[in-house]
Amino acid sequence: MRSFWSGAISFGLIYIPVKLYNASETNELSFHLLRRSDKSRIRYVRVTADTGEEVPAEEIVKGYEYSKGEYVILEEDDFRKANVKKTQTIEMITFVDAAQVDHKLYEKPYYLEPVKGAAKAYALLRDALARSGKVGIGRFVLRNRETLGVVKPEGQVLVLNQMRYASEIRDPNDLALPGVDQVSEKELEMAVSLIETLTGPWNPEQYTDTYTEDLQRIIRAKIEGREPAPEAEAPIPIEVTDLFAKLSQSLEQAKQQKSSPQ
User: Fold this and answer.
1) Residue range(s) in the chain whose domain bears CATH number 2.40.290.10
2) pLDDT tens across 168-218, in order?
3) 242 phi, psi to nearest 5 deg
């Protein structure tokens, strides 16, 4: 893995120099845009709005429009000057129980690695968080934007989860949602029984991107000159007319699956 940021975790008066690594990656298939007639590649270019002239990457800068049509150019060094400490530090501002943090606030995970000479301080924070059952809430600047992050131990590594601000979470009150008295007690009990029957250990490794796998099957067929066979389409019910009957069928099916040898 390649580190893309280096700085320090600020923990009271303790500074822990660290490097930041992406903890996730996207396993998407890469597609190019082509002209259907001759399969020539489509290329996007950056041009000026005034003349349509293509602009080389090295000539493109960031500008802030402070008045209509008037801009001031900001260089990369200007962003660092805004607050040198913030651009180089993950500052722990409080510690909370992990269960208190709304999962909707989590945005992207990163791994933190101690630099040479910081192993003991890193282990101190990691082990103290593990023993206390707390997570650290910190603020830091990434890609010219100050954000919040949750620092928590996972085994031997400290994970920094970049967070959204609470103001960025939309209020669901505008949605047309059912009330709390929509189902009968019998239906609710059967639904709980179905959930318990389908409950098992969480093993994330057993889940894969089946849609991408099927796309790869179609691509292989087209490369070999074959017409790919479509997957059998299951009918999508528009409305559940007999909820109790569907629950009964689902529960019986779940019991059969659980009792059958894997």
Assistant:
1) 5-27+80-165
2) 899 998 888 888 888 888 888 888 888 888 788 888 887 777 778 888 888
3) -130, 90
Distances (CA, A) of 176 to 58, 173, 187, 208: 50, 8, 22, 33
- pTM equals 0.69
Could you tell me which residue, 78 or 38, shows the higher pLDDT? Answer: 38
Residue-wise pLDDT tens digits, 123-169: 999 999 999 999 999 988 887 788 899 999 999 999 999 999 889 89
pLDDT in tens, 91-121: 898 999 988 999 899 999 999 999 999 999 9
CA separation for the pair 199, 204 (Å, rounded): 14
Amino acid at 27: N
Cα separation, 135 vs 152, whole angstroms = 5
| Assigned token pair, 169 | 């979470």
* Model pLDDT, residue 192: 87
Domain covering 5-27+80-165, topology: Ku70; Chain: A; Domain 2 (2.40.290)
State both tokens at 6: 């280096």
